Amino acid sequence: MKKWIALALSVTMCAALLAGCGNTKQPAAQSGADSKAPVTEAQTSEMPETPVAETAQTEAEPKSDVSVTDPINDIAGKYYSYYYYPDTDFLMDYFFHFYDEVPGVGKVYYAGFCINQITYTGTYEVKEEEIEYACWPDRETQDAAGEGAEPPTGTAPYTIYFYDMSGNLVDSCGYDGTNLYMDMENISGIGGDANVFTLDTDPENSVMANDYAGEAALAIKSFVSPDDETATLDLLVNGKYNDMVIMAADGTYAGNADMSEITLTSSDGSADAKVTLNEDGTYTYTAADGTEVILAESAQNTKNVLYSFVGEVPVPGMEGTNGDLICDFYDDGTARVYASAMGQEFDLDAGTYEVDMTTYTITAQFDKAGELATYATDDGMSIDYAQTGAEVFGDVASTLSMLKQ
To answer: Does pLDDT of 35 surpass 90?
Structure first.
């Protein structure tokens, strides 16, 4: 019963739907942008060096004159952003948030594009290496140049390398401490390609403050009990955690250099819990009252959910009771459909998918449901899922809506 209550609370807190990137106010894709599928681990491990941008007739000028004394180290804790107004009352924005080093994980970044509807996370490294870029300094210059015009070029003194959580290189871009030259292909967002992202010196009072606050708190390390798959612990990129090992709890965490000892400080002010690495590679979770639970690192640590859709599915034998039907799309190009009900998860389908970045449509090929595609709604994005004779649940048919990550 405790697991059902905890799960219900968790689902309730996560059920805010995205504001629509796919509505009539959605900007057109950047001219010349390629349609790209998500980068897989195999692809990133063999990825060639970032190509040098083509030379243009003009040279880009830095967009900000804010002084940063140590670009390599001062990037931690900073927001670099770009935004424009497709019309007078609608803000389209894009940003990077760079974290300080997370013990045992590395320096972590979060990228939220199209009002946090397209998200990326991983680790980063800044090196004093020059790199050429091709970026528009602002939206006005880009619009004035006209469709098909090449963005101005320049040379940045520093390079930021972006990696996935497995350490594979994903992409890189130029940086000078106050401007981030965002002309990457494997980390991109509709309408925000080939643009200068500027250091936000006052994020709390920024026009983008609400979207900064809506940053997807993605898990960078997850644990699960081998004896109870609903007993989970997620350590999030923002230094917080979600604990469902014994009863639902949240708060902040801190670990030693290799994360072999982790202290969980509950937000309700109760005594700390501890997580300690054992010699056999498992972990011991010790609650405040001394209760111990053995945990293992979750297989999902090797990949992240990029897009998540949720709908409802009737629970067999419980008339009027619905569970959650969830479709997750991961950053390795795979997809999973499962039902969550009464504290249990039931796998229903699996497959692969591709994303068309010109239309922001996800097309998936499932083992049982076949080919399905997302579509735009007034509230965001949806996908219709149906399967005949699913194990436990029988015939399943539901419209799933994208969740805010």
So the answer is: no
Instruction: Give the 3-state secondary structure of 250-298.
Output: EEEEEECCCCCEEEEEECCCCCCEEEEECCCCCEEEECCCCCEEEEEEC
Q: Out of 62-76, 191-205, 271-285, which region has the weakest mean confidence (pLDDT)?
A: 62-76
Q: What angle do CA 11, 15, 21 make, to 5 degrees?
A: 145
DSSP secondary structure of 320-352: T-EEEEEEEEETTSEEEEEEEETTEEEEEEEEE
Residue 292 corresponds to which amino acid?
Answer: E
The proportion of the chain whose per-residue pLDDT surpasses 70, expressed as a percent, equals 80
Residues 6+ apart with CB under 8 A from 88: none
| pLDDT in the model for residue 133 | 97
**Interval 259-266 mean pLDDT:** 92
β-sheet bridge partners, residue 97: 79, 110
- State how far the alpha carbon of 140 is from the alpha carbons of 95, 146, 262, in Å: 19, 10, 49
Q: Which of 164-168, 243-247, 313-317, 370-374 has the highest mean pLDDT?
A: 370-374
